[in-house]
């Protein structure tokens, strides 16, 4: 499993802690930035992670800003990204099962580290349920408009 991860300054601390978790679990990842708490613009990192996932360089992506809202909106502007703002284990699991989300968004200021790990584990342990394929195809059709 290879994961793309990126954040703005509001998500920097949570991103750094998630990276430590990945290292402890020997999970491959690539950090697309940011590299400090200095103010930056979240769309830049959503774009980098989104393109890396759509181009199949990574299995899925994680994007983090202060609330997860702005960066999820930005990630969804990348054609082929299905980014879901997740806030508990249930939404993490359902994002994969029902929406086949290839990017998940977290709030660095709204999601404690321990909860973020539980969300990630729920997402990573879930499998897409193909019974939802008709809906995913409709999303692809919207992108073509």
Question: What is the string of helix and strand elements?
Answer: EHEHEHEHEHH
In total, how many beta strands?
5
Q: Sheet with the most strands?
A: 5 strands, parallel
**CATH homologous superfamily annotation:** Sugar-phosphate isomerase, RpiB/LacA/LacB
Low-pLDDT runs of 5+ residues are none
Give the termini separation: 33 Å
Radius of gyration: 14 Å
Q: Beta fraction of the residues?
A: 15-25%
Large-scale geometry: globular
Write the layout of secondary structure elements.
Layout: E1 2-7, H1 12-24, E2 28-31, H2 42-54, E3 60-65, H3 69-75, E4 83-85, H4 89-97, E5 103-107, H5 113-125, H6 133-144
Helix pairs in contact: 2-3, 4-5
Structural write-up:
The longest helix has 13 residues, at 12-24. The protein has six helices and five strands, in the order βαβαβαβαβαα. By secondary structure, it is an alpha/beta fold. Helix content is 46%, strand content 17%. It has a single domain (2-144), classed as Ribose 5-phosphate Isomerase B, Chain: A (3-Layer(aba) Sandwich), CATH 3.40.1400.10. It is globular. The protein has helices spanning 12-24, 42-54, 69-75, 89-97, 113-125, 133-144, and strands at residues 2-7, 28-31, 60-65, 83-85, 103-107. Helix 2 crosses helix 3 (69-75) and helix 4 (89-97) packs parallel to helix 5. Strand 1 (2-7), helix 1 and strand 2 form a beta-alpha-beta unit.
